[in-house]
Amino acid sequence: MRQISGDQAERHAEHLLLAAGMRLLARNYRCKQGELDLVMRDADTVVFVEVRYRRRDLWGDAAETVDWRKQKRVIAAAHHYLLTHPHLANQPCRFDVIAAIGDPADPASYRWLREAFTC
């Protein structure tokens, strides 16, 4: 059940970003350094998106789980992605977080944090 909800949250986050005019470049990009949930294109900017889902907020907000360790892994995976996609290497980049709490199918449970962290 946990994996299904996480996958649902990623799909709904992707739809949210597509509806905002972004274009999907990659989904669940994996490398030795880590995983990128979504890689999107927002005009000329490459956006690395971390999607976090929690069923309840008893132990804090979903966005709070993107601590410095997770940020470090996402940044390393983004660096690898850019090395393997050299045509994007000179484009501006940003790191967004989409946090959801509650029903993963409810659009109101999603919060989009643009430029959630930097490297």
UniProtKB/TrEMBL annotation:
Superkingdom of origin organism: Bacteria
Matches recorded under InterPro entries: Restrct_endonuc-II-like, tRNA_endonuc-like_dom_sf, UPF0102_YraN-like
Pfam family of the protein (one): UPF0102
Regions crossing the membrane: none
Organism (species): Halopseudomonas formosensis
Family per similarity comment: Belongs to the UPF0102 family.
Name the UniProt record assigns to this protein: UPF0102 protein RED13_000441
